[in-house]
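Changelog-linked ticket: zinc ion example.
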Amino acid sequence: MQIFGKKISNTMGNMKLERDIQELETKKQTLVMSVNNEIGTLKGLITAKFTEIGAESYNLHLRGEFSEEYFAEKFAEINALEQTIKERESKIAEISDRYNEEITLLKNLTPDVAPAPVASLGICTACNAVRIEGDAFCRGCGSRF
Ligand SMILES: [Zn+2]
């Protein structure tokens, strides 16, 4: 019975570890996904600005005007958005590193995996040698069980 209990506690330890690892993977993915969504939004804003600049360039051209200030301002806005995207990208790398480190730590943890002792099934009636689970023949005298 004690042997059986030991086997179960090793299995439970493994299951808990697997669950913890899975939880960390899920948290990592959720965080990375939300930052990726932010990046998607920022990229959308950049695209919208380019469209806006294109339309305004056309209007300025039609009026025979050119506004250095307008372009400088818009390009600075795009640049700021691109900087923010870079920050978000390094945030993703940080999140991945942090979680991967923890996950690796957990993966290297082995719950006390002492080899489960084999159950004895009693004693050989011919030579009194201990009979081990799975044995078809006696280890002492070779009698068939
Ligand atoms: Zn025997």
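Closing comment: Example verified and attached. The chain has a mean pLDDT of 88. The longest strand covers residues 120-123.
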